[in-house]
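Task card 7
Instruction: Convert sequence to structure tokens.
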Amino acid sequence: MTKKGQKSPVVYSTEDLLTSLCNSVTRVLNVATQCNIHYSGMVQRITKTCLKPDIGCFVLFDGGFSGLVVLNFSAQTAMELYESYMLNMGMPKSELASAHTSDDVANILGELMNQIVGDFTGKVRRELQTHITQNQPKMLVLNKQVLLSIDTHLDQPEVRRVTFYTGHNNIFYLELATDRTEFIKLHDFEATEAPNPDELIAQTTSDMLVSAELPASADQPPQEDHDSLMKSLGF
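Output:
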């Protein structure tokens, strides 16, 4: 209880975490693709997370708090982001993949999601003074919806969905499942300076281009890749 004359403590809720994550999505994708990404001012309160057609991607994080981040792209959105990124990096259009089912598209979207969640975990460390770690994003080309019920050790889960729009008005969705939690500011502190997003993108550009050129199917047959994903989902 706050004494008379004292300021009320600053509290960071699930919606604050969600806003920070959404800002990481726009921050990274706008720099990487120049696609003018923006998100809806309204958020949906949902009860479950799903991977949806045409491309679904998810990342788990754990540490100070646990959670799951899902991005669901239509084929059109996936191709817009992929092509915009590759062209922005100087690749000729004639050398780009022509279908969203290409390994190149999945590799680029997966690495972009890795950068998004990395940007978010960095902000958590600086602004909330706690630490979370992430696993590698898992991508799946889908023709039907897959319910995600991964054991993320959430005692009181809160699940949200936000709609994002690209410069060509293609749509993709972000879903966040996390513990019901609040961060209460006990005393003032200075957050460390955030890294420059252009530098972050530049540091990973060569790795992303190399990943896009590697045929994942040559190392891991489709059935083995499917079995690996199903195992990670707990099936």
